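Hi support team,

I'm opening this ticket because the web form for multi-chain structure prediction keeps timing out on my end. I have pasted the exact lines I submitted so you can reproduce it. The total is 847 residues across two entries, so I didn't expect it to be a heavy job. Is there a limit I'm missing, or should I split the entries? Thanks in advance, R.K.
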Amino acid sequence: MSSPIVKLVAQRLALGILLLLAVSVLIFAGTQILPGDVAQAILGQSATPESLANLREQLGLNDPAFIRYFRWLGGVVTGDLGTAMSSGQDIATSIKGRLWNTLFLAFWAAVVAVPLAIILGLIAVRYRNGWVDKLISGLALASTSFPEFFIGYVLVYFFAVKYQIFPGISTVYDGMPFGERMQAIMLPAAALTLVVLAHMMRMTRAAILNVMQSAYVETAELKGLSAFAVIRRHAFPNAIAPIINVVMLNLAYLIVGVVVVEVIFVYPGMGQYLVDHVTKRDVPVVQAVGLIFAAVYISLNIIADIAAIVANPRLRHPK
Amino acid sequence: MSNELEFLSWRVASGKLSRRDFLGRAAALGVTATFANSLLSSAARAAGPVKGGSLKAGLVGGESTNSLDPALMMTQVPFAFGKCWGEMIVELSPEGKLENRIAEEIGSSDDAKVWTLKIRDGVEFHNGKTVTAEDVAATLERHSDEKSKSGALGYMKGIETIKASGKEVVLTLKEANADLPYLLSDYHLIVQPNGGKDKPDAGIGAGPYKITTNEPGVRHGGERFANYWQGDKMGHADQVEVIVINDATARTSALQGGQVNMINRVEPKIVDLIKRLPGVTIRNHAGPGHYVFIMHCNTAPFDNNDLRMALKLAIDREEMLDKILRGYGSLGNDFPINASYPLFTEIEQRKYDPDKAKFHYKKSGHDGTVLLRTSDVAFPGAVDASQLFQQSAAKAGIKIELKREPGDGYWNEVWNKQPFSASYWGGRSTQDQMYSTAYLSTADWNDTRFKRPDFDKMVLAARAELDETKRKQMYHDMAVMVRDEGGLILPMFNQFIDATGAKVAGWVDDPHQELMNGYALAKCWLEA
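Hello R.K., no limit was hit. The queue was backed up. Here is the completed structure from your submission:
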């Protein structure tokens, strides 16, 4: 059984790398068609023809685009993302801390949100169409329907201003004790959990309900298994592929889509970093962040695919 | 006030009685909490600064692209943090007088062309090195170099030679300038070892705090510098911290939740709400900052003075002050100077006059619409203000078409490029500085394209004039010229609105910039 899986996984990985390469071309091309070039953006209003020519020479902008692309790509592969033009700092160094912060927040939000969503989904299916199901679905949909900033501000109002249980701003820094760090991220993690919860919960519920209509579930019911046992042993394992898919999609969102939450809670993550540099037209940084985000999306999707293959014997043995 | 209360408040100020106990006893004596609190703070001020604690500010105006190089400081966070770790050559006192800092004495030749700065003894950099005349000279050299990216370059260009000898720095100017000491108070001119020529962003200064944390766009922190030369006047808290909070709601809630002790840029529309919060004090005061609409005097249809005059008369300043600033500001009069400048003179206030506007509009020969570009980044409430302008102008028969531009890129693509747009100015410390930055024909930031050789001559003459009465008259004439012929529509001067939380003492209103001209962290302290 192992050889087809290894082959499939290798295939997916190769496809993912190919896709990432394609994205890198797109990102690079996209920044090339922006009006003006990096040299012009650096010099701004004080640009003179001579200083522009000098800086272009210095930055190697006179080489053809494909040579510059491969130089950039070579740098990325070896971990050198270049330097930010607005501050002159090494991009890889400044991104490292930010990426770590974003992953830290996303991790704890996921640790709470994923099991909670799946358990709530299972409960909703068990009591489907009853008041428990309606209550769970209703609350989850309500929390998703509110914009993130609203949820964030409500949390801040009650937990930071009124009762002062958790800090309302989540500035974390290197060397911060773990306990303090956890306390600092409590509110943004809660906001993120509320935002992604409903989607995962509803998809879990729908996927399991879908399976519940199959003949083997009916058989299981007829042989007298309890409702939870049917769901746990027969329905859930067969619904796992779509659930993993939606979980991965939400994980990707937790990493690349949290700009608003980061702004509200003043959390020093990737989103805030990207926004700052987009306003400054800092192209090298935007390229680097774009590539990292693409890599996150692609790798989470590969994981979802592989998990689906492992979970479903039919995909393991293609005809 | 009863003697007992006074005695008790002194005991609190000297740390012998807790605040809570005091309030309890005050209540027992039938005193309201508000009055008791004000009693406490005046006692605390009289008792003098309290050392210790950690003072935190939550400020808008920081980005992850910020650098510690003083030449590149542009926004509020580097400005305020710079005053914590950097020391200036001279500074403006809250009363607008010059205060010598690293320079012990400043003297000039009779024609205001040669200036001598005597450098103070015993001022030390954070790396242990003593500040010398060479360091000061190198700092000025770096900021006046044509190739420098310094924000102070505009004023520093006028320096011809800089020489350090012994304890003195001698500056020779290309043209006479009676205001030179004021220019040296520019916040970019933080004195650095060897002028920062070796490593401009090393963050080594001679200020009251030594940098401990520098995470641009997130937070900056400093600890008290033990060898600071003026330890009795500044550097009261053990640590200071600036947390970057660009979101206005988050900033307010951080102050409310007690995570920071002070914030900047409170929006006028929520000031009244914040005033009601217990422990929070609004610190608003007038300054030279102003909100404007700028027309390019050299671009049709704005190259016609009648059209410019029509638009100036078609704006309802009182309404705008009332609705956009909620009264936290003062009326503008189409020239960039107000009473916060030392040599200011009153000029008759221009009023909303639809009939006269109609007359000038007709005389200009222009008909059809006038396109105004606006965006909320131009100033807080700029889009609303533009709409008010549109309505008041419509009553005078002038059609203004509004184009709302994206905030991202507004300063690169619209301001100083498009012929009619909304904008703001922070103001400068002297009239000469303001006019030289934005109204001289050669100024980089001449955003109204006001290019008048006769005006340039007046600026240069006033700069060299040492007789104050004559100078006042010259500035008056210049103001009238900008007001009646320039491309500036200035409906209002805005106030700086900061807020502090409970326990913050030592606040002094300063008209020059927000947060006590940036010194709030360095000069305030936390009551025990």
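A quick check on our side: Residues 204 and 516 of chain B are 23 Å apart (CA to CA). Let us know if the file doesn't open in your viewer.
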